[in-house]
Amino acid sequence: MEQSRRNGVSRRGLIRGGLLAVAASGVAVVGLAGPANAAVVNLGLDKQGAKRIQRWILTMYGYKGAIDGVLGTNSWKAIQRWLAKWPSQPRPYKGAIDGIVGPKTIASLQANLKKFEGYKGAIDGIAGPGTKAAFWRKAYSNPPV
């Protein structure tokens, strides 16, 4: 059994053919393989940060799920609606509102994070450490709702 770990993620923790992994903390993170259609993609947020995002999208973008700190399909559908409709969005999301955290969703999120949260990386649709750090800042930049 290979025990190679990088940033708390073992290779055995990767979902076969996908991009979702579960870190040692139990928080789902995104790698580079392709769209994640698994249930949870917190993009490096802890439960409190994910709850803050859920409360925010509840008030503005039709999130109807539990405030549980788990960014699942319904959370990402609301995030996609926000990325598609927000008037100041620098690169509106143009994909299906399907809750799948694929390259189009990540690229639109990166454009927003670049404009408002200090993201300095490429708008490439890959959720690397810079994207996750900026998403963390987004979650914690506003007072909790």
Please report the total strand number as a whole number: 4
What's the story with the biggest beta sheet? Answer: 2 strands, antiparallel
Low-confidence stretches: 1-38
Compute the number of helices. 4
Task: Give the integer mean of the pLDDT values.
Answer: 79
What share of residues are in beta strands? 5-15%
Structural class call reads mainly alpha
Which strand order do you get reading across the main beta sheet?
1-2
Protein name: A2(IV) collagen
InterPro entries: PGBD-like_sf, PGBDSf, TAT_signal
Describe the protein's architecture and organization.
This protein has a two-stranded antiparallel sheet with strand order 1-2. Strands 3-4 form a two-stranded antiparallel ribbon. Helices cover about 35% and strands about 5% of the residues. Helix 1 (about 45-60) crosses helix 2 (about 75-85), helix 1 packs across helix 4 and helix 3 (about 105-115) crosses helix 4. It has one domain (about 5-140). The chain has helices spanning about 45-60, 75-85, 105-115, 130-140, and strands spanning about 5, 10, 20, 30. It comes from Streptomyces durocortorensis. This is A2(IV) collagen.
